[in-house]
Design a protein that fits this description.
mainly alpha, single chain, 5 helices
Length: 161
């Protein structure tokens, strides 16, 4: 990995922070993590936390992944059509994998990243939604995301995102 990749990851995190702040605020407004009981005590609302977790791990992660691919492709100087192709390539290779029609290469690329992602992001999200104050969640996610991006770059260094 070269220093320009690290700069790109830092820039991506800088650019993705404002929309992610809005996303986390929206989730918290719609599904407050802590609610007040009849006795006046604040308690973790497990239902709301589960809803936020599900939305963050599906819709939120999909949007962030596509934005990551698009921004990294743009940083590499690709035009709009090439960026769309990169996003489609990832989406279509994911759908082929889910349908059991993946090529050996896509399986080799996908499974290590998928397993690593499943080990990391649900835990980060759960801790973020239950322990980290809403105004600090994006900072935590961005820091983890920076290292995740470096990890991905090392894993797929031969790929031409």
């Amino acid at each position: 990995m070269c220093s320009s990749d690290l700069i790109h990851f830092v820039l991506f995190n800088f650019l993705s922070c404002p929309p992610n702040v809005l996303w986390q605020e929206y989730l918290e407004e719609q599904f407050p993590a802590y609610t007040t009981d009849f006795d006046g005590k604040k308690r973790l609302n497990k239902t709301n936390t589960a809803k936020k977790f599900a939305l963050d791990q599906t819709l939120g992660s999909t949007v962030n992944t596509l934005l990551f691919i698009a921004v990294m492709s743009a940083f590499k100087g690709k035009d709009g059509k090439a960026i769309i192709r990169d996003c489609q390539r990832v989406c279509f290779s994911m759908s082929r994998i889910q349908k059991g029609k993946a090529t050996d290469n896509s399986m080799q690329d996908f499974w290590p990243l998928a397993i690593s992602g499943l080990k990391l992001w649900p835990l980060v999200s759960l801790l973020n939604l239950t322990v980290v104050p809403v105004n600090r969640r994006v900072i935590v996610g961005s820091l983890v995301g920076l290292f995740w991006g470096i990890y991905i770059s090392l894993i797929i260094s031969g790929d031409s995102l």
